[in-house]
Amino acid sequence: MNNLQKYQGNELGIDRIDVQTVKLAGLLHDIGHGPFSHLFEHEFLPRVHPGSTWSHEHMSALLLDSIVDKHSIDIEPDYLKVIKEMIVASSDVSTAEGVKEKRFLYDIVANGRNGIDVDKFDYIDRDCRACGIGSNFQHWRLLEDLSIHKLFTTRADLHRTVYTHAKVKAVELMLVDALVEANEYLGISLHADDPEDFWKLDDTIVKSIETAPNDELKKAKEIIQRIRRRELYKFCNQYSVPKDKLDHFKNITAQDIVCSQITSKVLLKEEDVAVSNVKIDLTRGKDNPLESIKFFKDFGCEEKFPITDERVSHLLPVCNQDRIVRVYAKKPELVEAVSEAFENLQLRMYGEKTQVHDTPTKKKRRFN
């Protein structure tokens, strides 16, 4: 923001208040995350409150109001309103639609219009470094169309190799099960509606469950202890939804797997199966994010234009979204039965099955 004000401040009308507003929005936009971040929002809450529309952006705004009121912070109401609008703009684009002046300021922290924002610059660079993953994306080269596409593809690669790794999802599924088991006794989800209580929720909820003496938390505690011992849910198989089926795809449930069981020595129950429905895209679902971005020929040009895929590269993907269904058995002895039921489901839905986790059998070594 300092550079933007320095080099284009007069042209764009950026003043000191604008700089402070965007900086505060950037600093505060993620304070509304619950325990284990997106897991709480997208996995846990929908399990205990089906149809939940809760979002961490709106909780961030509520927490900001609570902080200002509780500590009697002297801040102009209009100033505070703009900060909150910038925070929620990524999840609710309509929030900024009515803004007539300096609309671009609402796209800097978290951009709901085309996905180019400093939040992505931050976590992509940080996570690539932390995980030892090479990244071709360099945010200082963002003015080039190919570099913009690298932003989206690097993000997708992180989702594919880190955030949705089979082992990562196994741990997440177990954490969600533990939180659901503990919810009735601890009232975890009740804190999600009140900022005065919500701030007390963080990742230490796991330690609270693990050390609680209460019998009511026995099941949740056992799941946490299994994670500690690395006794994770067993990955059975996965398949990628064919691209011609994406428009009509509905998330697969444990019930779908159990109902696909034909013959087996073991009769499966829903609580024996865990399913992870993974969606990886380039921030715009099935659409190409470059279609929502306008380019200029050079710095002095005022005419903007869209760019075609062919201008960027002939190697760009023809499909901008992956939907992957992963199935896990909660007990090792059920892997075969769950795998068989999952294969039956694939045959019924798509007329074919995949077996991605099989390792080719090695030839036996001969000893003379």
Overall pLDDT metric? 88
What fraction strand?
Answer: 5-15%
In CATH, the topology of the domain at 233-285 and 320-355 is named Alpha-Beta Plaits
Query: Multimeric state of these chains?
Result: single chain
Distance between the termini: 72 Å
Number of strands: 5
Major beta sheet, strand line-up:
1-5-2
Percent helix, as a range, is 40-55%
In DSSP terms (H or I, runs of 4 or more residues), the helix count works out at 15
Alpha-beta content class: mainly alpha
CATH class identity of the domain at 233-285 and 320-355: Alpha Beta
The major beta sheet can be summarized as: 3 strands, antiparallel
From the alpha-carbon coordinates, what is the Rg to the nearest angstrom?
24 Å
Please write the string of helix (H) and strand (E) elements: HHHHHHHHHHHHEHEEEHEH
Flag low-confidence runs. Answer: none
Shape: globular
- Known CATH architecture of the domain at 233-285 and 320-355: 2-Layer Sandwich
